[in-house]
Design goal:
Distance between the termini of chain A: 38 Å
Strand order of the largest sheet of chain A: 3-2-1-15-16
Oligomer: heterodimer
Largest sheet of chain B: 5 strands, mixed
Structural class of chain B: alpha+beta
CATH class of the largest domain in chain B: Alpha Beta
Number of domains of chain B: 2
Largest sheet of chain A: 5 strands, antiparallel
Helix content of chain B: 10-25%
Radius of gyration of chain B: 19 Å
Shape of chain A: globular
Number of helices of chain A: 15
CATH class of the largest domain in chain A: Mainly Alpha
Number of strands of chain B: 10
Strand content of chain B: 5-15%
Structural class of chain A: alpha+beta
CATH architecture of the largest domain in chain A: Orthogonal Bundle
Strand content of chain A: 15-25%
Helix content of chain A: 40-55%
Order of helices and strands of chain B: EEHEEEHHEEHEEEH
CATH architecture of the largest domain in chain B: Roll
Number of domains of chain A: 2
CATH topology of the largest domain in chain A: Cytochrome-c3 Hydrogenase, chain B
Distance between the termini of chain B: 37 Å
CATH superfamily of the largest domain in chain A: Cytochrome-c3 Hydrogenase, chain B
Largest interface: A-B, 23 and 17 residues
Radius of gyration of chain A: 22 Å
Number of strands of chain A: 16
């Protein structure tokens, strides 16, 4: 179904439009569109054309180094990789239950990461599109423009992210690339002064998070047709849930539902993930295509991340966020929950949830404990799964008797969303590109769709300003018939 | 009543005892001179040259140059720091020093000296040599990527442990650390985690297993103060003794 526009039957007869790059920093991707004589899109693909190789060069390194090494995958969500690897290595050292303090400190770090990442994505990167319009004046469509037109919103965005980074600093040791999660526990206790420093600001953080959710809800209410229709498609979903079905972003079992919302599996133990999820390789992208094994690669793809988590959890265990989740799911007969732009609304509900969880953890005296490490019997295999800001993150390691990693398999959130992002681009291309001349605003519609997923690998949405884009329309004879260029000088 | 002999170091008068080197006298007086292969419990080695000073106008290694009454020593000058920066850049280029994921980060003398000298660029094209990790021993592992050939482990194993576990082999750019086993594996030597050789490496080649990253950021030796503010830490101590003398 979703592969209808993945491969055109006679590509040699079609004109090719390439959007390259759609990223600047560690991710590198491009979009290609094949158009027929009537400018109808026949094929649309998001290619991830970079190659990182972390799974390979982790091999041969000692297992206790991995949580620190592997977080260098990313400068935006290193905490997710750090904690996910630490969870896998907990199993390698035979620790199946952390001390109560260690678990709370890791959760605190993780929810700080959720808060700062979601704030960064919405306020700094996506709000210009949403507040000004997808094809609004380019010079204004950035965070500086938001700061000028909506100074309170911009200020709150900056302070929300700063708070999340501060939570990470006091738990991990640094705002970016800390070291505190070690196999079997954590290396750093939380000082009373550090706790109190965060507590004094937490009620402002919750208040601003609630206002941010309300802002997104208003955007949907003002233009429900655009917001619920843009890049909309039905898809399966995958996420961790707690044993009682609650949203839990740090630990739980895997739950999956198919495109009709019917259960595929539930409460699957993380260490058996590979019985349920496989990956497919396609020749046109370095990013793999995961799928649910029982459904096969054609029907088994799914969405992860905020949208999937909203749909899959039975409830959010904090009061403000749960109220907002219900409103989100009820909006327009559930149409927001399947909309690509629904990711934004769902993401901010999670930001609110993270703020509430942080408050609860800071008020829990066990968070200030000093029993940080547990011990167990050494094992050869470890699987960690966590709900990273962008979705389900899986780390799987095999460790030999010399304590060196011999195999690593990482399925990152954006990889799970590979098919879904491609599908979203196809929907947007179908809705907006057909028969129209190329323009900057048109190109931005593609970016808006990609940006909604907050893809980490391409980092397209984690570069301030505009992505450097060049689109060239080439006829079947290889002659350029149209060209649109954005100033590449602003690329970082 | 006798007066201690002295020399001047960057204009400051430094007293010394007979037999002391310039580096020993300076560190005793809490004056820092950059160094890497020097260790307060071992005889000076003079191989890394990072402690190069100008004594009476002559470039010499402070760790081996005997202090002499009335000598005029230059240390913290831009010329000498430039030379030291180049030496440190060459050491970084010669090995594989991946500080971001290294468990010795914050403990590492090479990193600390690099920060202190404000080494901000690579300076040289890195060699990226292929060097093995030896994790065969149950308690100690070797990451030879970081070796700067200071021979402190060689000296510790010879002089204190009496085991001769480590040695250098090869010449020039091919020189490398080896262990005393036909298999070439640490597990086949009589190395023990309690050996002096297991605790003297300044750059994290020889490490105890399963202990990495246990010290949080902020509490590692070079987190609070730069190495140049910790001169007294390197002041001469009684020499490390052979185990059999204990």
């Amino acid at each position: 179904m979703s592969f209808e526009m993945e491969t055109a039957p006679h590509p040699e007869q079609l004109r090719r439009v390439a959007i390259e790059p759609v990223s600047r920093v560690e991710g590198h991707g491009k979009v290609t569109l094949l158009l027929d004589d009537h400018n109808r899109v026949q094929q649309a693909r998001l290619h991830i054309s970079e190659f990182r190789g972390f799974e390979r060069f982790i091999q041969g390194r000692p297992y206790w180094e991995v949580p620190v090494l592997v977080q260098r995958l990313c400068g935006i969500c290193p905490v997710s990789h750090h904690l996910c690897a630490a969870k896998a290595m907990d199993q390698v050292v035979g620790v199946h239950r952390l001390t109560p303090t260690a678990e709370r400190l890791r959760r605190l770090m993780h929810y700080g990461q959720i808060l700062q990442s979601h704030a960064l994505h919405f306020f700094h990167l996506s709000s210009p599109d949403l507040l000004f319009g997808f094809d609004s004046e380019v010079a204004r469509r950035n965070i500086v423009g938001v700061a000028a037109a909506h100074p309170d919103i911009a200020r709150q965005g900056v302070l929300l992210r700063k708070f999340g980074q501060e939570v990470i600093r006091v738990t991990a040791g640094k705002r970016v690339h800390g070291t505190s999660a070690v196999p079997g526990g954590v290396n750093k206790a939380l000082a009373v002064a550090e706790r109190d420093g965060l507590l004094k600001d937490i009620y402002d953080i919750i208040k601003w998070s609630r206002e941010a959710v309300a802002l997104t809800r208003r955007l949907f209410e003002q233009d429900p047709d655009t917001y619920a229709r843009f890049g909309r498609f039905d898809a399966g979903a995958l996420a961790l849930v707690r044993a009682d079905g609650a949203m839990d972003l740090y630990h739980g079992g895997l739950r999956a539902r198919d495109v009709a919302g019917e259960p595929i599996f539930d409460h699957v133990a993380p260490d058996t993930y590979d019985d349920y999820i496989h990956e497919q390789v396609k020749p046109w992208s370095y990013m793999k295509f995961p799928y649910i094994r029982s459904l096969g690669p054609d029907d088994g793809w799914y969405r992860v991340g905020p949208l999937a988590r909203m749909a899959l959890c039975d409830f959010i265990p904090t009061p403000f966020a749960e109220r907002e989740r219900k409103a989100f799911l009820a909006f327009d007969d559930g149409r927001a929950a399947g909309s690509t732009l629904g990711y934004h609304w769902a993401r901010l509900i999670e930001m609110l949830h993270a703020a509430e969880v942080i408050k609860d953890l800071l008020q829990d005296e066990q968070t200030l404990g000093t029993e940080l490490m547990a011990e167990g019997a050494r094992q050869g295999r470890g699987v960690g799964i966590i709900e990273a800001p962008r979705g389900t993150l899986i780390h799987h390691y095999e460790v030999n008797e010399e304590d060196l990693v011999v195999r690593a398999n990482l399925i990152v959130s954006t990889t799970h969303n590979n098919n879904a992002m491609n599908q979203s681009i196809r929907e947007v291309a179908r809705q907006y590109f057909d028969g129209r001349e190329l323009s900057e605003g048109l190109l931005n519609h593609i970016e808006v769709a990609i940006r909604a997923f907050d893809p980490c690998l391409s980092c397209a949405t984690h570069a301030l300003g505009r992505m450097p884009l060049e689109v060239t329309l080439v006829d079947a004879g290889g002659h350029t018939v149209d060209r649109a260029l954005r100033d590449p000088g602003e690329a970082c | 009543m006798s007066t201690s002999p002295t020399f001047t170091l960057d204009g400051r008068e430094i007293p010394f005892e007979a037999g002391q080197t310039v580096l020993q006298a300076a560190l005793t007086a809490d004056v820092y001179i950059p160094h890497l292969c020097y260790h307060p419990e071992f005889k000076p080695h003079g191989s890394c040259k990072v402690c190069t000073i100008k004594a009476d106008g002559r470039h010499v290694s402070a760790c081996t140059w005997p202090a002499r009454h009335g000598m005029v020593v230059e240390n913290a000058t831009e010329e000498l720091d430039d030379l030291r920066r180049t030496l440190v850049q060459m050491l970084f280029a010669e090995g594989n020093h991946f500080c971001p994921s290294c468990e010795y980060s914050g403990h590492c003398l090479l990193q600390a000296v690099g920060y202190d000298l404000q080494v901000e660029t690579a300076g040289f094209r890195h060699f990226f040599p292929v060097r093995p990790v030896d994790a065969s021993h149950p308690e100690v592992w070797l990451d030879l990527n970081r070796c700067i050939l200071c021979e402190l482990c060689v000296r510790a194993s010879d002089e204190v442990d009496g085991k001769h576990v480590f040695g250098l082999s090869g010449r020039g750019a091919g020189k490398h650390l080896i262990v005393n086993a036909l298999s070439g594996r640490l597990a086949d030597t009589d190395m023990a985690a309690t050996d002096k050789a297991a605790e003297v490496c300044p750059v994290g080649v020889i490490l105890k297993k399963k202990a990495g990253f246990r010290v949080p950021i902020g509490e590692r030796p070079f987190d609070r103060e730069p190495v140049s503010a910790q001169a007294a830490r390197y002041a001469p101590r009684p020499p490390a003794r052979h185990r059999e003398e204990d």
